[in-house]
Amino acid sequence: MGLSVAEAAVLRGLHLVPVSFSSREKVKRTIQVGQTDIRIYGPSAREDVLSSVADEFPDVIVLDYTAPDSVNSNAELYCKLGLPFVMGTTGGNRQLLYKSVQDSKNYALISPQMGKQVVAFVALMRIFGEQFPGAYSGYHLEVLESHQASKKDTSGTAKDVIACFEKLGVPYDMNKMVKIRDPEQQLEMVGVPEEHIEGHAFHLYHLTSSDDSVSFEFQHNVCGRSIYAEGTIDAAIFLHRKVV
């Protein structure tokens, strides 16, 4: 995702700060995005490097796509240094994440879903739940979500949509969610195109009445990462306008 976002930034004509970070300590390499050589640093260098970045690039917006266990420590560091950030990483302690930002009065845009069209779908589901509470009482909900094997946590988007169904009167046990991370199952059972096994997000929500006579399906499938990368750049531009 980090690389996809950097490439989207270049296409939009934004200036890339030539710095990124890895979860591995011993990293000595650079990657090229457009005409920019980006130096990759290990986690122990984060504070020193970001302090220098803040001094050299006062208008910088940090874009964060990392592992769930890095969410809170990263956010706390951004807040400590006063660096506005877009958090696209899911997982971590979300309540602590929000509190860190609020207490520091730092600027941040935090969302488990950066695809604007998917965000619009979730917003529609929220309105649905608020306008018609209990409309599906007595129905049974089944949820299946499939992502690339490297995604360790449960889909934040799925959690948000499930919360909407609960407002509609459908209780759901999160432990029953079917999470597909095996490539063979994704190809054969889910129908993910082979070229997108390493980057996709397929979601299926199936509602059934108590007597099985009525069913509804809600589905949104994403192949590749461009929808998230483009949405992240829009989020960064939006956040920058708020800061200035």
Automatic annotation (TrEMBL):
<dbReference type="InterPro" id="IPR036291">
    <property type="entry name" value="NAD(P)-bd_dom_sf"/>
</dbReference>
<keyword id="KW-0520">NAD</keyword>
<keyword id="KW-0934">Plastid</keyword>
<dbReference type="Pfam" id="PF05173">
    <property type="entry name" value="DapB_C"/>
</dbReference>
<dbReference type="GO" id="GO:0009570">
    <property type="term" value="C:chloroplast stroma"/>
</dbReference>
<dbReference type="Pfam" id="PF01113">
    <property type="entry name" value="DapB_N"/>
</dbReference>
<feature type="domain" description="Dihydrodipicolinate reductase C-terminal">
    <location>
        <begin position="119"/>
        <end position="241"/>
    </location>
</feature>
<comment type="function">
    <text>Catalyzes the conversion of 4-hydroxy-tetrahydrodipicolinate (HTPA) to tetrahydrodipicolinate.</text>
</comment>
<dbReference type="GO" id="GO:0070402">
    <property type="term" value="F:NADPH binding"/>
</dbReference>
<dbReference type="GO" id="GO:0008839">
    <property type="term" value="F:4-hydroxy-tetrahydrodipicolinate reductase"/>
</dbReference>
<dbReference type="GO" id="GO:0019877">
    <property type="term" value="P:diaminopimelate biosynthetic process"/>
</dbReference>
<dbReference type="GO" id="GO:0009089">
    <property type="term" value="P:lysine biosynthetic process via diaminopimelate"/>
</dbReference>
<comment type="pathway">
    <text>Amino-acid biosynthesis; L-lysine biosynthesis via DAP pathway; (S)-tetrahydrodipicolinate from L-aspartate: step 4/4.</text>
</comment>
<keyword id="KW-0220">Diaminopimelate biosynthesis</keyword>
<dbReference type="InterPro" id="IPR023940">
    <property type="entry name" value="DHDPR_bac"/>
</dbReference>
<feature type="domain" description="Dihydrodipicolinate reductase N-terminal">
    <location>
        <begin position="1"/>
        <end position="104"/>
    </location>
</feature>
<keyword id="KW-0028">Amino-acid biosynthesis</keyword>
<comment type="similarity">
    <text>Belongs to the DapB family.</text>
</comment>
<protein>
    <recommendedName>
        <fullName>4-hydroxy-tetrahydrodipicolinate reductase</fullName>
        <ecNumber>1.17.1.8</ecNumber>
    </recommendedName>
</protein>
<keyword id="KW-0809">Transit peptide</keyword>
<dbReference type="InterPro" id="IPR000846">
    <property type="entry name" value="DapB_N"/>
</dbReference>
<dbReference type="InterPro" id="IPR011859">
    <property type="entry name" value="Dihydrodipicolinate_Rdtase_pln"/>
</dbReference>
<keyword id="KW-0150">Chloroplast</keyword>
<keyword id="KW-0457">Lysine biosynthesis</keyword>
<keyword id="KW-0560">Oxidoreductase</keyword>
<keyword id="KW-0521">NADP</keyword>
<dbReference type="InterPro" id="IPR022663">
    <property type="entry name" value="DapB_C"/>
</dbReference>
